């Protein structure tokens, strides 16, 4: 380490975990190092999704704001640090696309200015959601019983690990292990 800076490869999970932990404590130098290390990759993720540089830059900025504010919530047992940051960026890119697929407001002088806008998801939103749900269900079906059950209860029903361990009558360490391994298999399946 030189002058408070860490030289890391952008894909070194151990160093990224350390930087996130330091960001959670409010260390601005670690945040700068994290930004320099992964901003190129996160920008590429945003640009691939959005295909517009101005939107990708906006999403990148918002991603790092979220990373800074949520670094303390990062859980090494659930995903690799780069996966966690990519998911934040992807989700913000999806939000950006949804915002820009909304119909623009008509001019005040337009005869349609007072017509109510349909707030329901459009066909594109429904198609994307259906595809994402189908992929997730397909990947969930590949998990072993305890892994699948643990993930579904913990994430879709919002139950804490300790409550889940009591509900499943299993040691907390086993439940955490099932979830960690299941999440790794899900990530591999969804990325493949």
TrEMBL record:
Residues 103-125 are annotated as: Disordered. SUPFAM superfamilies: Sigma2 domain of RNA polymerase sigma factors, Sigma3 and sigma4 domains of RNA polymerase sigma factors. Keywords: Sigma factor, Transcription, Transcription regulation. Gene3D superfamilies: 1.10.1740.10, Winged helix-like DNA-binding domain superfamily/Winged helix DNA-binding domain. Residues 135-186 form the RNA polymerase sigma factor 70 region 4 type domain. Belongs to the sigma-70 factor family. ECF subfamily. This is Sigma-70 family RNA polymerase sigma factor. It comes from Herbaspirillum lusitanum.
């Amino acid at each position: 380490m030189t002058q408070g800076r860490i030289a890391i490869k952008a894909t070194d999970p151990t160093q990224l975990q350390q930087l996130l932990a330091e960001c959670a404590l409010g260390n601005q130098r670690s945040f700068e190092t994290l930004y320099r290390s992964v901003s190129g990759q996160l920008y590429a993720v945003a640009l691939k999704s959005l295909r517009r540089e101005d939107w990708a830059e906006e999403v990148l900025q918002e991603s790092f704001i979220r990373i800074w504010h949520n670094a303390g919530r990062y859980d090494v047992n659930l995903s690799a640090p780069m996966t966690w940051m990519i998911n934040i960026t992807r989700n913000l890119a999806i939000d950006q696309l949804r915002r820009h697929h909304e119909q623009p407001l008509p001019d005040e002088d337009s005869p349609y200015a007072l017509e109510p806008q349909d707030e329901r998801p459009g066909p594109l939103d429904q198609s994307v959601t259906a595809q994402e749900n189908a992929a997730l269900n397909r990947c969930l079906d590949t998990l072993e019983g305890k892994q699948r059950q643990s993930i579904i209860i913990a994430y879709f029903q919002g139950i804490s690990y300790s409550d889940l361990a009591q509900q499943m009558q299993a040691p907390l360490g086993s439940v955490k292990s099932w979830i960690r391994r299941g999440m790794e298999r899900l990530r591999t399946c969804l990325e493949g």
